[in-house]
TrEMBL record:
Xref: InterPro entries: UDP_glucos_trans
Protein family: Belongs to the UDP-glycosyltransferase family.
Tagged with keyword Glycosyltransferase: yes
Entry's Gene Ontology BP terms: flavonol biosynthetic process
Protein name: Glycosyltransferase
Alphabetically ordered keywords of this record: Glycosyltransferase, Transferase
Organism listed in the record: Acer yangbiense
Amino acid sequence: MQKMSSSSGKSTHILVIPYPASGHILPHIDLIHQLVIRGGLDITVLVTPKNVHFLNSLVSLHPTIETLVLPFPSHPNIPAGVENMQDVTIDSLADISIAFGQLCDPIIHWFRSHPCPPIAIFCDTLFNPWTHRLVSTLGIKTIGFMPTNAQFFFNCFSYIDSTPSFASEITLKTKDNWGLLINSFTELEGDDKFNGIKGFMKHDRVWGVGPLIPIKAGNKERGGPSSVPADELMAWLDSCQVDKSVVYVGFGSQIRLNKQQMEALGNALEKSGVRFIWAVKNDHDHLVVPLIPSGFEDRVAGRGLVIRGWVPQALILSHPAVGSYLTHFGWGSVLEGLIGGVLLLAWPMQVDHFSNATMLVDQMGVAIRVCEGLTSVPDSENLMKIFTESIKEDRPERIAWMKLREKALNAIKKGGSSYKAIDDFVTQLQSNLMID
């Protein structure tokens, strides 16, 4: 167990427990930053050893944050050394949660020996249902955080039936939360969805706090090492003389394309003639990642970059040279694309990706669907045309997307809906939970 420096004086102490997946840890970090800058909170973040590096930027900005590092418990269905969902497939989601839940006893020991223990546990609503057993033992409150949007929450509790399941346990336990924060904003999803969730929770302590802005802390890597250093990547983008002329291709920290998908995507990028950045997964001992097409990098030298390993995605998407983004449509990536103002090309593959695409492509018309499904193979000729068209400034989807972006940026400005929601959450947390 490792513990870094804690803040002094009287304040509200919260233990944060993110689900061990990059797409969940990072928005937790961004939210923690927003909470800390408002003052009056002591925060401890629980991580396992291989996930400590995610906190580097946060702790460098806020050295008073404590880090509680506990070894990741073993599980018969999880390969030795795996501590993050990015190293396994979606089939391991429940197993990771079950293994992570074995940290209850070490957390209880830490809690009872702490001179000023937490008054609440702030946890990932989606995949940490075991924390409700923990708070019951400790006699404290649970605050939930949804890294996804309100619509996905609706989808979750709409399908609860009498058959016990991991998913139904998650949703039913959410009702016990003292409060719930959602990485979305009312101008996107409307008051009705948030009011519906309040009805489900049977209280009004539900806040839309997104889109959460990725924190920046000098040269601290946000998620891990990359084959192309960030300064070199930014220099390459700076050399692109035309704004919105680069296509970025990335599928998050978990999705891995098969050989046929890699070939179709490579052919489309090569034939399109557009400048591009393609994020490709590193190999893992237990997950074989197909290589990019033979000779591809030589044939596109100067026009395209292939980056292996972690990619500074938020930096890429915020650069004026980047015009479109082929994405799996995970919510974190959607919001990064929204903040960056790049047109999204949707290839939804699993979990919330489909409902995100339904909302933004079908209902709002602010993005373009290019393919669908985890094993689907896109048509190279069609994809090539989409790449070429996607960097045009007059695409109707881009125009509509930029209008939504303006609403998002207004929501997180001082006085905006999400900004005020975070203020209200901190106020209620300090006044109500300390009394409870």
